[in-house]
Amino acid sequence: MILYHTSTFEIQKPNLIYSRPYLDFGKGFYLTSLLSQAQLYGERFRRRGESAVLNTFILDDFCEDCSRKIFPAYDGEWLDFVTACRKGLYHIEYDIIEGGIADDQVFDTVDLYFSGIYTKEQALDQLKYKKPNHQICIASQEVLDKYLHFQSSEIL
């Protein structure tokens, strides 16, 4: 599977030491299969006056010793998982987590839920109209080293 990661520099060997906690799926190395999404993310760096580098990787399709969690939709399970991860309350038990990204529109809804303005039901009612983007979080350094292979980078 071809995956993309946009950063301010080339990343040939991802290292979880540099990953930030409290993200959608917790601490990990985040990628997407959607080139357009990765390019759009690069625009955020350029707006801040930073360089944007699109890194391309191949993730082996056969990852026999990888534990995976896939969220096919913005549903209650996804909302609970993202809420726990963003609060630092979730211990990652998966090597790879895949699902929708909490982009600006989705995050607004999630934030209203975090703050108690929306109930879970209200948040889910808003989220059901959103088509999930795509992100993959690799939360295991062993999986990064063994199954994710750098292919190229280009300045956006």
The residue fraction in helices comes out at 25-40%
Total number of beta strands: 7
- Uncertain spans, ≥5 residues at pLDDT below 50? none
Largest sheet data = 4 strands, mixed
- H and E order: EEHEEHEHHEHE
Q: Provide mean pLDDT, rounded.
A: 87
Rg is 16 Å
Strand content: 15-25%
Specify the structural class: alpha+beta
How many angstroms does the end-to-end distance come to? 22 Å
With strands numbered from the N-terminus, the spatial order across the biggest sheet is 2-6-5-4
Silhouette: globular
How many DSSP helices?
5
Please explain how this structure is put together.
The protein is globular. Helix 3 (104-114) runs antiparallel to helix 4. The longest helix is centred in the N-terminal third of the chain and has 13 residues, at 35-47. It has helices at 35-47, 76-86, 104-114, 120-127, 141-147; strands at 2-7, 29-31, 53-59, 68-70, 96-99, 135-138, 148-155. The strands form two sheets. It has a four-stranded mixed beta sheet with strand order 2-6-5-4. It has a three-stranded antiparallel beta sheet with strand order 1-3-7. Helix content is 32%, strand content 22%.
Give the secondary structure arrangement, pairings included.
Layout: E1 2-7, E2 29-31, H1 35-47, E3 53-59, E4 68-70, H2 76-86, E5 96-99, H3 104-114, H4 120-127, E6 135-138, H5 141-147, E7 148-155
Parallel strand pairs: 4-5
Antiparallel strand pairs: 1-3, 2-6, 3-7, 5-6
Helix pairs in contact: 3-4
